[in-house]
Amino acid sequence: MNREPLIMVCTCEMAGRVRGKGFPARELPGRMARGVGWVPTNAMINAFSVIAGTPFGTGGDLILVPDPTAEVEVDFADGSAKEHFFLGDLRWLDGRAWALCPRDFLRRALAALKEAAGVSLVAAFEHEFTYTGVQDGPGNPYSLDSFRRQGVFAEVFTAALRAAGCEPDSFMAEYGGRQYEFTVDVAEGMRAADRAVVAREMARASASRLGHRAIFSPVLDPAGVGNGVHIHFSFKDAAGTPVMHDPADPLGLSPVARAFAAGILHHQPALCALTAPSTISYIRLRPNRWAPTHATLEQQDRGAALRICPVLPGPNVAKQFNVEYRVADGAASPYLALAAVVWAGVDGIRRGLAIPAEGPALPASLEQALDALEASEAARGWMGESFHGAYLMHKRGEAALMAGLTEAEQCARYADTY
């Protein structure tokens, strides 16, 4: 049968879902400038395909413009349509950035970091997910058997990652039933978040072509193991030299890294609303789940909000040295999560904050996290009044839909969407 290839331009918005609009591939040259039409209220579609409220009403028009450096074209060579899409920016019709554009929120944060400290961010996202194409068995955490049971998925997925421009780093069977983890190589600034979005979509695309799903929901079973997202980050200066490590510091942190970490810990309760943005995120963030419960910085401790990762001895310690943000999950847009971390760190640098001796407890619910975000004048400044208000409306509407459901029922609802 006759076929004509299509291309999609996408955004990963407040619900952490990748949405957009397609067009015939032959129109690409013109679409690079004018993009595709978009509607402000589209941003208010939550994880359950509901618009619980919107400050934008039915009016307004935007364009979603492809970024030529964020193109993905992957042919699975199985007769299915190629995965061909661009990640893009939301703009007004005259080309100005829209206040709720996720990539622009991160772009502004990265510019603020460079202005405040003269450094660039290098980052990588580590994802945990559940693959439905395997049956769990006893004794399988981290096992060769669990790795074997996923069949060809990992190989298909690895090939897709590489074809999509995401250099694969590792793939492993994790602790939970049917749970796996993968990482891709580090990238600078916006590219790190782009890769996180693309990598998740390649996992979904690979699983779908094998008749299964890759589920990134934070928790599938209230009594089970959660799926987290860990953001590893470091800094380099204008010459490309790593500048996060100081061997004379008790924790190995340079002064700029110390202040950056202090800012994250200071703002951690508000950050949770952006990095752990589902009602079930807070099932995962409970004691005895190998997940953070307090805003702490620790060396090589997976219960900390910020973990200083291990490095191998030798001449490349500074290049290896990185810190891991562990209060995130797959319900978050990688752009919003990374931007929130950077903005908080920039505030720590600007104010010369010190790492607290004891960090505050993390919020116990999405509602508490949203209250902290609403009360944060700093976050209101980073996001802007329009974005700040719309985000609170979006997520409170989502929380209201979950009210009255048991934790197991909420987990089932989120598993359907993520």
Q: Identify the CATH homologous superfamily of the largest domain.
A: Glutamine synthetase/guanido kinase, catalytic domain
- Strand composition percent: 15-25%
Mean pLDDT: 96
Q: Sheet bearing the most strands, described?
A: 9 strands, mixed
CATH class annotation of the largest domain: Alpha Beta
Number of domains: 2
| SS element count, helices | 14
Give the helix proportion (percent range): 25-40%
Task: Let me know the number of strands.
Answer: 14
Q: Spell the H/E element sequence.
A: EEHEEEHEHHEEEHEEHHHEEHEHHHHH
**For the terminal residues, how far apart are their CA atoms?**
33 Å
Kindly report the CATH topology of the largest domain: Creatine Kinase, Chain A, domain 2
CATH architecture of the largest domain: 2-Layer Sandwich
Rg, Cα atoms, Å: 21 Å
Which structural class do you get from the secondary structure elements?
A: alpha+beta
Overview of the structural elements:
The protein is α+β, with helices and mostly antiparallel strands and 418 residues long. The protein folds into two domains: 6-98, Glutamine synthetase, N-terminal domain (Ubiquitin-like (UB roll)); 106-417, Glutamine synthetase/guanido kinase, catalytic domain (Creatine Kinase, Chain A, domain 2, 2-Layer Sandwich), CATH 3.30.590.10. The chain has 14 helices and 14 strands. It has helices at residues 28-34, 102-117, 144-149, 153-163, 190-209, 255-266, 268-275, 281-284, 317-320, 334-351, 366-375, 377-383, 385-402, 407-417, and strands spanning 6-12, 18-24, 36-38, 62-74, 83-92, 120-131, 168-173, 179-184, 187-188, 214-215, 229-236, 297-299, 306-308, 323-328. A hairpin with an 8-residue loop joins strand 4 (62-74) and strand 5 (83-92).
